[in-house]
Every structure is written in structure tokens, then in C-alpha cells.
Design brief:
2 domains; Beta-lactamase; about 35% helix; single chain; Peptidoglycan synthesis regulatory factor (PBP3), Domain 2; about 25% strand; alpha+beta
Length: about 400
């Protein structure tokens, strides 16, 4: 059952953005979804809540946890990871890690993304959390934090041979949840580079050198604006793909699960993305460098402060719709000094009528220190004299 928020987004896109009937994608894959990458709104879906094995698409969540650990200074991309026996004995796609071999977090991450290396996934999981089991627990926690409601993983790479529980149906997700995870991942700058890299070499110039080519190369090289994300295929899952493309101000994310062949999943992805780009457009409403508003600061050395959007505020509209959303600023009722630059002070909302089509945090554009008692007295005196308006 769709949540009220999801229903609101769908109705906003279908009713508010236009009333003309759109030619729906025709696909063979049993489960699929298309969302817009500006705010995560659902544009089109087919059995998107159906639980299915997702094979190596699992690794998107693995990458998220490792990237966030790097961003949080838990470890760096240059740190060396010692390979365990468990990591070495992974099957399927791999870079043939050896027990005791040391490889950087960076090389393991890129081999995971570009070459879908199962051994790299386990090596990173163990380095991150001490064991793959502990890492997988964090994966499931992260999935819930992102908003996934039908996702449960039992290993970090989606390889059935890794755990008998995968074959018993305990490793699963849905097209909708994978789209949510992918949408979240694109908030991490390193992720975009990982999944758009076409070729990567591990152990360059050394014994065991491996040149990896992206398993998603058919999409990356064949679709205008394509910039990732991840393929997956095992017998239990069929051919799966989470794919992203960006044109001008519109990123679209499409997911297909359970296709019968590589050609079918690619054809279905193209059909879904074409539907999105043929019928929708992205609009930049406010740049993060634009002053949204100037508001009062109580008890500050400065009495007013400029407010900015935390990031560029983009919305998705149906093509042919010329009415632009309005921008509303919902600020904390009482903004009191001291205020730090970059501090969240409220929410910027883009609205079409009463429908919210985009949101972004509102942040302070500068530091405002607390006023001294003498400055406060001086201001009060001037207000009494009517020289300064209160």
C-alpha cells in the first residue's frame, strides 16, 4: 500500500502537472520503477513493491556504507585492507584477491563498482565492521534509515553461494526500495564517480594486474546522458539493473528486476527512461548561491541574516506546463543568535498550488554572534526615540 506521501507525489505529477494521458512504457520485466532524481517522486511503476532477489545490485548499499565511513573519517581511501580467507573464496565476478594481500580502500571500491567484484565487497565489509555479518546488520539498518520497507540482506554482495539463506529467500528487495537506495546514493559525490567509471585497473604494472570494464557498459555507452548505476544477475534474480541518466536539470533513475536477458533489461530501461524524458523536464528554481530571503535574528550583532538553499533546488514538471512553482520559506519561529554559517534554520518548499513538489533545507549564509548587552541597550534606546524601527 502506498503511503500518503507517495500518493501525494504521484497525484502531483499526474494531476497538477498536466491532464493529458501519457503513453505508458511497454516492458517485459516483471518489476520496474521510474523516479525523478530531483526529489525522488515516482513517475511510473510496475509491481514495484514485489519482493525479489536483486543479485549484485546489493552492492549499491555496500558502497554507501563504505563511502560514508570515508566521509566520516572512519578510514581513508588510501588505507590498506588485508584480505581474509573469507574474502578470497568468493565466487563469481572477482579480482582474485589472495589471503594476506593488501589493497587500498579506493581500489577495492572501484573494483566493486566497475567489475562487481564479490571478493572486494567482503574485504571492504570486514574492514568496515570487523566481519561481514556485522556489516550486513548495518546494511539493513541503513536501508530502513533510507526508507526501505521491503528490503533484507544477508550478505554484502548478493551472491547466492555466499549464504544458504539467500537461496531460502531471505535476501531480497524491491524495485521501489532499490530506487530509493540509488536516489540516496547520488547524494554522495564519490558514488557518482564510482558508478560512471567505464574502465579501471587494479595492481597496474604488477603481477595479477586486472583491467576491469563496467558491467553496465551497454547502458553507459549507449544511452544519451547515462551515468551509472549497477547491474545484477544470478539465476535466482534474472537480469536486474538500476540505471541513472541526467539531462540538463533532470536526473531520472530507473530500475528493472527479473528480466529474461541482458538485451531485455537494457531495452526495458531505455523504454522507461525515454518515457520520462519525453514527458517531463527539470527546472532549476533556486541555486544554492541565490539569496532566498533576509530574515531577522534576535539578539544578534547583526539584526538580519541572508538565507540560502542548502543545495540547488530543482523540481520536475510535465513538459508543456509553463506555470512555475512558488517558493515558500518556513523558518523557525524565533531565530536567536548566535547563528553559525551553514546552520539549518528552516525549510524551503516549492509549491504548485497547495501541492509540495520540492523541498530543501534553508541554511544561514553567515555567522551572527550574540550582541553585547551595551549594543542591546543602545538599540532599545534608539527604538524608544523612534530612530530605529523595532
Amino acid at each position: 500500500m502506498k503511503t500518503r506521501i507517495e500518493q501525494s507525489i504521484i497525484w502531483c505529477l499526474v494531476l497538477i502537472l498536466g491532464t493529458m494521458a501519457l503513453a505508458q512504457p511497454v516492458i517485459k520485466s516483471p518489476a520496474a520503477i521510474l523516479i525523478e532524481g530531483n526529489n525522488g517522486g515516482i513517475i511510473w511503476e510496475k509491481k514495484s513493491d514485489e519482493k525479489r532477489h536483486v543479485a549484485s545490485i546489493t552492492k549499491i548499499l555496500t558502497m554507501i556504507l563504505v563511502i560514508e565511513a570515508v566521509e566520516n573519517n572512519q578510514f581513508s581511501l588510501d588505507d590498506l585492507v588485508s584480505v581474509s580467507e573469507s574474502a578470497k573464496r568468493q565466487g563469481g565476478s572477482q579480482i582474485w584477491l589472495e589471503i594476506g594481500e593488501q589493497m587500498s580502500v579506493k581500489d577495492l571500491l572501484y573494483s566493486l563498482s566497475v567489475g562487481s567484484a564479490n571478493d572486494s565487497a567482503v574485504a571492504l565489509a570486514e574492514f568496515h565492521s570487523g566481519s561481514e555479518l556485522a556489516f550486513v546488520e548495518k546494511m539493513n539498518e541503513k536501508a530502513k534509515e533510507i526508507g526501505c520497507t521491503n528490503t533484507h540482506f544477508v550478505n554484502c554482495n548478493g551472491l547466492p553461494e555466499n549464504s544458504h539463506r539467500v537461496l531460502e529467500g531471505q535476501h531480497y528487495s524491491t524495485a521501489k526500495d532499490i530506487a530509493l537506495v540509488t536516489f540516496y546514493a547520488y547524494k554522495l559525490p564519490l558514488f557518482a564517480d564510482l558508478v560512471s567509471t567505464y574502465e579501471y585497473t587494479v595492481r597496474p604494472g604488477q603481477k595479477g594486474e586486472v583491467v576491469l570494464y563496467n558491467y553496465n557498459k551497454l547502458f553507459l555507452r549507449g544511452y544519451p546522458g547515462a551515468d551509472g548505476v549497477k547491474t545484477g544477475m544470478v539465476e535466482a534474480s534474472g537480469y536486474c539493473l538500476s540505471a541513472s541518466a541526467i539531462r540538463e536539470d533532470l536526473r531520472l533513475i530507473a530500475v528493472v528486476l527479473g528480466a529474461s536477458s541482458n538485451q531485455e533489461r537494457y531495452k526495458d530501461i531505455v523504454s522507461i527512461l525515454d518515457y520520462g524524458y519525453n514527458n517531463f523536464k527539470g527546472i532549476l528554481l533556486a541555486s544554492k548561491s541565490d539569496v532566498i530571503m533576509e530574515i531577522p535574528v534576535h539578539h544578534g550583532k547583526k539584526e538580519k541574516i541572508e538565507i540560502y538553499a542548502q543545495d540547488d533546488l530543482r523540481v520536475t514538471l510535465k513538459k508543456g506546463v509553463d506555470t512555475l512553482p512558488t517558493i515558500d520559506l518556513e523558518i523557525k519561529e524565533y531565530l536567536k543568535a548566535p547563528v553559525k554559517k551553514g546552520e539549518c534554520v528552516g525549510v524551503i518548499k516549492a509549491k504548485l498550488g497547495e501541492e509540495i513538489v520540492g523541498e530543501m533545507q534553508a541554511i544561514a549564509g553567515e555567522d551572527v554572534e550574540k550582541a553585547t548587552i551595551w549594543l542591546e541597550i543602545s538599540r532599545s534606546f534608539l527604538k524608544i526615540l523612534g530612530i530605529v524601527k523595532g
